[in-house]
Write a structure and sequence with these properties.
single chain, alpha/beta, five-stranded mixed β-sheet, binds 5'-O-[(R)-(carboxyoxy)(hydroxy)phosphoryl]adenosine, binds zinc ion
Length: about 325
């Protein structure tokens, strides 16, 4: 059973072929980062046009790399929500056309559900329930996953997402878009001092599982303007900001696991690729006797393999979508 996955929700055009829910035959990702770096962020109209230009070639490349043809596909899975509407429509239209022409099922996938399912590509035998931290450019949430497709939200950000905090702070440090991955590298390779600049960690009370990152952005701006930190090297700034984002993510995820009595923690979304977050979460889980699964970095950031994987579990459960399925800019997973 081969599933063609398609992802075009933001600034990556991606297609992947997944066999039997486990064997990843290809995962082609055409990034638009260079295009959007010029404007310091994603311009939706520009992203949509680029998806249109790339989608056909990306799907062909995914088939070629996998050594299969259109006739070998058993279903097509596509991210149809949430995301940039014009960008999503490109992938959804391609998927509908293929499902119609090839007479195969269409599987419409929630982008955040797919991020969570990237964990099943790393570790196919996950026993429920689990707690999953989703931290990306637009989302910072903690989910209790009770079974396939069964989600309960335990905590969420009250303002900015963790990836947004990385990218906006990076801009204040003079780093190019998208700053998160650069900040990670700078802090790691430069052995940055996380205590160089004192920055706030919004706890929101001893019991809270929510996040707040908007105060951090203001604090970084004020510290940048203060003469006191004028001589702090960039790698120390990067390490300080990174620690201020990572600490609440780890504290609240472990608090959630403890409260729910869950022994297995998953991580998902672009920020899950952050090396400091992974190290800190790994140490905290080891200390508390929890199992931790983290997808490899290429499966943490946006990709079509995760869409195909979520699609496989939809297909297994008989959750097939009609060809007139809608495309939505926003929708909560739970
Ligand atoms: O999941 P994703 O690829 O797209 C969304 O669905 O938003 O996440 C992108 C976010 C961006 O904010 C990016 O800066 C951040 O993930 N990111 C990182 C790292 N890699 C990607 N943030 C910190 N460290 C990284 N290594
Ligand atoms: Zn994403």
């Amino acid at each position: 059973m081969n599933i063609l996955g398609i992802e075009t929700s933001c600034d990556e055009t991606s297609a992947a072929i997944l066999r039997d829910g486990r064997e990843l035959l290809s995962n082609v990702i055409a990034s638009q980062i260079d295009l959007h770096a010029k404007t310091g962020g994603v311009v939706p109209e520009v992203a949509s046009r680029q998806h249109v230009a790339q989608i056909g070639g990306v799907i062909e490349e995914a088939l070629r790399e996998a050594g299969v043809g259109y006739g070998d596909m058993g279903a097509v899975a596509v991210a149809n929500r949430p995301g940039l509407l014009g960008a999503l429509l490109v992938g959804v239209s391609a998927a509908k056309a293929l499902a119609y022409a090839l007479h195969i099922p269409l599987l419409a996938i929630h982008h955040i559900e797919a991020h969570i399912y990237a964990n099943w590509l790393a570790e196919p035998d996950i026993t429920f329930p689990v707690v999953c931290l989703v931290a990306s450019g637009g989302h910072s949430e903690i989910f209790l996953v009770r079974g396939h497709g069964d989600y309960q939200i335990l905590g969420r950000t009250r303002d900015d997402a963790a990836g947004e905090a990385f990218d906006k702070s990076a801009r204040l440090l003079g780093l190019p878009y998208p700053g998160g991955v650069l900040m990670d590298r700078l802090a790691r390779e430069g052995h940055g001092n996380p205590d160089a600049v004192p920055l706030p960690r919004a706890q929101l009370g001893p019991e809270s599982l929510d996040f707040s990152f908007s105060g951090l952005k203001t604090a970084v701006l004020q510290a940048r303007q203060s003469a006191q930190y004028a001589d702090v090297p960039t790698q120390d700034w990067a390490a300080s900001v990174q620690a201020a984002i990572v600490e609440p993510l780890v504290v609240k995820t472990l608090r959630a696991a403890k409260r729910e009595g869950v022994g297995h923690v998953l991580m998902a979304g672009g920020v899950a690729a952050n090396s400091h977050l992974q190290e800190t979460m790994r140490a905290a889980c080891a200390r508390d006797g929890l199992r931790l699964t983290v997808p490899p970095p290429r499966l943490c950031t946006d990709n079509a393999a995760m869409i195909a994987c979520a699609g496989y579990y939809h297909w297994s459960a008989g959750k097939i979508d009609a060809l007139d399925v809608d495309t939505l800019a926003s929708e909560r997973l739970a």
